[in-house]
Structure formats: structure tokens, C-alpha cells
What does this fold into?
Amino acid sequence: MNDNNILAVVLAGGQSKRFGEDKNQAKLGNLTLLEHVLEKVTKKFEKTLIISNQNLNIKDLKSITIVPDCIQGNLGPLVGVLTAMKWIRKNNKQYQWIATFPSDTPFFETSIIEKYKNRINLNESLLYFVRSNQKRHNIFGLWSVKLMDTLENDLTNNNFRKVEEWADKIGVETINVKIDKFDPFFNINTKTDLEEAKKILKEYKND
It folds into this structure.
């Protein structure tokens, strides 16, 4: 896939309060949750940006850059999105879109990336989220960099924090994904979720 128009962004800046420790480093099989996501994303994109305020134990790859939130205070994923957009501008990159992936969702199918590319070509919206089983996944998103100034203003002056509320204000289209067995966008917030993920992993590998 020609990804020159899209920057892959893994949002790994959460505080993991419900998990009790940094869930990015929690093991699922032989890989950490973050490694599961990176293994998929780095195969599809030449460049991956990780937004994180933590010290991450990952392989030192030239294709991966780690940057902290541009606004401190753990204000949520919207700040991570803005950080990626500002990184593009600061470094004079030509990306016009960012594709965001949460660091705690190890089972998503990489076919969604091709769907992103198709939506860009349709030119229907500046923002797309994935929907599966009637649930919208607000962190699996395709964001036009044209939204940067509006996003920064809403974060700093209008106190927007929730992705869902900001997206509804801006206007967002959804990319529907069919579910066959389990929801591939299942995300791990708690230790109980991790145990469920271990069960899914066994089925996933034996499928």
C-alpha cells in the first residue's frame, strides 16, 4: 500500500488506572499488548508515531518515533491526535491524514487500513471512525490534518476532552466492519479483560 499520505499513530498515553499498571507492557502470549499492535501497524506503514508519556520498552526501529503529548496533564486521546498533527507540521512532513490505533487492542484486522485508503479517495469527510456490531470505535480513526487548528482551539479554549463529543461536533463518517466470531476491536482495560483476551488468543491462533 502506498502510505505516503497517511501517518500511522499508536495512542499509548493512557494512565491505565483500571488496569493497575502500565498495560502497554502487559504480556499477551509472547508479546506485550503494545507489541501486538506495532507488529501489525509497522508491516503496513513506513512510519509509525507512538504518542506516550511513559518510558516504553520496545525495539529500537528507525520506522518508529515516540513523542510525548504536546499538552501535559493527561487530557485524553484528543491531545494525542493533536500531537501527531503538530509533529507533521513541525517536521515538514507531507502526510495529509493520520490513522490512529489504540495500544490495547491486539486483535484488529489490518484490512481496515485498506478501507482507510479507499475512504480518502472518496473524499466524503475529514474524519472517519470504525464501527462494528453497532458500536463505534472512536480511537480507530482516520483524521485529516486539516482538522488540526480546530482541534487545538477546542482543546485549549473550549475544554473538549471526549473524542466522541468532539467528533460529533465536527461531523464523522463510519466505516462498518462485519464481525464473524469475536469483536476484533475488543480493547483491554482491566485484568479481567486481559484474561478474556488470553482465551481469544487461543482461538485466534487456532482459527
